[in-house]
Amino acid sequence: MNKPKMATEKGVPSNSKVLMLLGQLERMNGEAMMRDVETARQVTAKIFHLIQTQEEQFTSILRWIEKWWNPRGSEPSFHPQLWCTLRPFVMKWRFSADPPEKSGKEVMSKGSSGMEVILASLENTRDVQTTLNILYILSELLTVGRGRRVSVFVSKGGTGILFQILISASKELPPSEELMLQLHSLLAKVGPKDRKFGVKARLSGALNATVNVTKQNLQNTKLLLPCLQVLRVYSTNSVNAISLGKNGVVELMFKIVAPYSKKNTTLLKVALDALGALLKSKTNARRAVDGGHVHVLLALYQDWHHNDARHRHMLIRKGLLVCLRNITNIKLGRKAFIDTDGMRILYNSSTECLPVRTLDPLVNTSSLIMRKCFPKNRLPLPTIKSAFHYQLPHVPAAGPVAQLYSQPPGVDDVVDESDDNEETDADTENDTENEEDDKDQGAANDDIETDLNKLHPKNNPGRPFEELRVYERFFLELSEDFQGYNFEPSKSSSTTSSSFSSTRSTRPIIVPTAQALSPKHVPIMSCQEDCSLTKGEHTVHSPSVPTTAPLTPLELDTILLTKDRDRKGEAHAALSSLTRPPAQPQMIEQELAHLLECVSLEAEDTPNKGEEVGRGGKQEGSPVNATRHIQSPLLLGGIATRRVGGGGGGGGSNWGSDCGSEGAEDEAGEGAVLEVPDTALLLPLHDPDLYVEMVKGTRSVPQYAEVAYPDYFGHIAPTFKEPLQERVYGVQRSKIFQDIERLIHPNDIVDKVVYDLDIPSCPVIEDNGESLKFNSQFESGNLRKAVQIRKYEYDLVLNSDINSNHYHQWFYFEVSGMRVGTNYRFNIINSEKSNSQFNYGMQVLMYSVQDAISGRPRWVRTGTDICYYKNHFARSSIAAGGQKGKSYYTMTFSTSFSHKDDVCYFAYHYPYTYSTLKMHLSKLEALRTPQIYLRQDVLCQTLGGNSCPLLTITAMPESNSNDYICQFRNRPLIFLSARVHPGETNASWVMKGTLEFLMGTSPLAASLREAYIFKIVPMLNPDGVVNGNHRCSLSGEDLNRQWQNPNPELHPTIYHTKSLLQYLAHIQRAPLVFCDYHGHSRKKNVFMYGCSVKETVWQSNISATSSDLQEDLGYRALPKILSQIAPAFSMASCSFVVERSKESTARVVVWREIGVQRSYTMESTLCGCDQGKYKGLQIGTRELEEMGAQFCVALLRLKRLTGMRNHQHLLDLESDIIGTQSKVVSSSPTTYVMEEDEPSFLEAIDYSAESNDEDAEPENEHGGGVQENPNHLDQLSDGETNHRD
């Protein structure tokens, strides 16, 4: 049926004619229209003719009708005469427009809007030609009217009317082709704008009507195209997709898209889109697999790839890939894809597309499909449990260790290829496999605490004071009267003062029946009977750095270490000849101290028995010129020695022929010598020989017998800047393609194990010198296995935390035997987090022994082509917290080496070992002046038998008068802790900066000591640090999730630290500030997490009264001060929301149970900064230590703020320091609020977590993060878009 053609009546303005015709059509609605069919045809035909033929009039009419559809709009801005003509009609319809839910009678009543008039006419007419005329009108209006007009059409019920006409027309035999064409064309325009389009179609029966029309017109492309467009919209509804699949639409689509033909490409594109939407349903995907259509799709893709030489039909090729992607979401689809050689087909075609940048969407989608279909493998390990096992004193039945070891052998890492919980990729070109873990904001808010009873601090220690009284021994400063102490600053008093500062406990506390510790040797002043000294004689010796008084001896863990710098005798024995019988620790300690006395620190040649010592020289351009000589190797037992720079054997690291059983004596006899840079001036807290001594007192589960060279030499922060690495376009894609080549070209893969901790007798596998040599058998080392994949490529597997089967992130290992200038690729293949800062500019750290010998002992950022992405190694549901279908992630980097016969070390972050801490504490004691009150106690022994140090730092009173003693005792307490998570080494570097500042001689440091008493636990998890864990202690648990109910046997450091705080709460001396130092792997900058009732309520939907929200806002003061004085600190990244998943962390427990309002976690980035002075730079130890010092300065400023007696002084000082306007909200002198810092929303999340933070996210104490959107990343590569930390 043809569209009507009519001439315009002469003498009548066309716009007036339209108004007249619309008025006439309105009067005809109802029975009159059915009686006078011919008139209805003429009226609708005239309206359509005017719209179609007169462009100027059409524009005016559209504007006029827009006013109908926008009753509250302003008057149109066209010609005044035209407006005068239209005004009566417009005003009538404008002010009488009714809502969409009017009844049918009201729609036809006088005064309806123009659209309702047209729709009412369409619904009531039974004449096909009249219906067509109205459809023509609507088609013209909706085509030009853009999306807003379609939305109005939908709101007026137009979609339902079209479906009614479609059902009625389909019942006629044969149905009108022109009517079906116009109906489906309109539905294709309306469908995407109607959110309930699919539901309406299914309920009205329109699905089958469209399917039948499609089947009957497969050769009629004119009608087939709009039908396919409507089917495409239908299929976006999952229920409709299944229903259409049952009706054979999947098979129908394959008839349309195959075989290959360049005819009707528009039709083919729409058909592929519809097919792709249908195949999102797993049921339809199975139908496609059962019908053998995977092969058809691959063949079609090959045809289009080879014949589309000019790339004009990229959308068709993308449509075929989308179909394949959706089919391979199911296991049957992946198997069919592999069986039909899909990996090779897509790999070859993608390789050919790589040179053409515009084809990146094809390459990335192909990459996603191939990665998904890559056969899932288990890790190349006998078990995913840690290679080391520690027997706990008792295993709680409900604990993670009991669950871990209750599994039958081989069950813990079974490959799970289940379809459950698999990703459902969004239909965009930014598809990433990390999207499976994204959490929307609503899900994030579900974790916010909503119980107001839990949000108000209780200040309830929870234990009777009689149990806590034993901890009084750790707070001698609160009762010390200093009677008999000589306050005269003379040399004669230095010995006494140093002895006082060295007071410590000599054995762990046993609760609840702990006995008073008996003093050793001479009692110190009035420390009472439960204060004791370290074993050994106190010796006064000359300081190595300028100070006002002689220094105290170096001591730690009851070992007195004295070095005679004037003595140049011979050493009694080589370090490698020493052994350590567990039953004779005191004898060994004495032997070590005696040996250390004989080691000269002079920068001269020191001959050893029967050994030749080389000569040291200066290195130009190096920060260190003086050198000392040591004998290689750095070994603690009878293990075979190694040489550096000694030549022979074709490698930088030479081993005995049978891992030390033979040939050890020969290599040791060769007398390989290292020239050690003398770093005493640049590293006053570092002493290589003292470090070795400290290592000998450190207990590890693997019983490490080596010392890593970086820990021995020390680290001097480089003076040059290390910017965040820019991402090279396509780097991740190229790495993924290299991984895919392993399956396509298996003969090119070496697959040779070169290092394996699961072979404890001989982890280093000997070869002919063609492979690198690896080692991680030293304190804090973590590398379980190294497999050579290609000549210069290695897969590396990290060890799980002891008594655990996951937490893989921290690494620290040694590499030797490298070739100079060769580019090596290293792949850490069992990372667990869904994203990493390695995708956003972070680099690994490398330490070169040759550089250190040359006077540059430092860790430097290194690595190119760094990226982090999901791999083909499957995580069992047991290791993934019950989630199925999870995979590990690969962190890959490439690097080359500059020196022959070098030994290099790689680390996740700057290592800071437990022995390093002990060395630093000993050196800090040596730096103490008579004005500093320093006491080091042993808080407890860990599970592994290591001591947990507790420091007390403040200023000595000026005299023992009552006023000074009273001021001394009543100083507010600051409680600091760090390193509860071993992999967060940056926390220790921040703590080092804090300790050095506190022990410094600056006026600020002196003022700070006079203002506060500092109680510091610098390392809460020594066992985890020693054994190379990332997250847990030897109990296999995250200690920062044990604060609510710590076990004294399994979590001794947490138990006793909490007991210290409970004791302080009982005696009404709760700390002013509690801060736990952490590291954050997914966010940049340094920031804080605190606790606030008000800010938590803001982020939840709970109702609260004004009394519930009253709180002292002083908790924001310290982070605000830090944001003003510390360049790395970001106030915008701070959060003060309390979450349910964090209720057992230190921050929340200390706030809730101890009543410390200023209870914080301070997070330091592992990557770098994106704001302030260090924007665009990776963070280093200098910046971390600076942060620790700035934290101290902020505490001093906080003291000045809280010490003000009246509010005006408080406001003036705050305005002066912080530069913001504050207001007092209560009568408390410490209560103020910085208005611009009141957060209006919870900070955005940058990365997603696979489950809750406790089980599956080896991360810091808080899970939030800021969004990352680096412009330099590949826009379309998997895993290279922003995600949640």
In short:
The chain has 1285 residues and is an alpha+beta fold. It contains 45 helices and 24 strands. The protein has a seven-stranded mixed sheet with strand order 16-17-19-18-20-22-21, sandwiched between helices. Strands 5-7-8-10-14-13 form a six-stranded mixed sheet, with helices on one face. A five-stranded antiparallel sheet has the order 6-9-15-11-12.
What do you see in this structure?
The protein is an alpha+beta fold. 37% of the residues lie in helices and 11% in strands. The chain contains 45 helices and 24 strands. The strands form 6 sheets. It has a 7-stranded mixed beta sheet, with helices on both faces. The chain has a 6-stranded mixed beta sheet with strand order 5-7-8-10-14-13, covered by helices on one side. A hairpin with a 2-residue loop joins strand 1 and strand 2. Helix 44 (1181-1202) runs antiparallel to helix 45 (1207-1218). Keywords: Carboxypeptidase, Cytoplasm, Hydrolase, Metal-binding, Metalloprotease, Mitochondrion, Nucleus, Protease, Zinc. It is found in: Cytoplasm, Cytosol; Mitochondrion; Nucleus. It comes from Gasterosteus aculeatus aculeatus. Belongs to the peptidase M14 family. One of its GO terms (molecular function) is metallocarboxypeptidase activity.
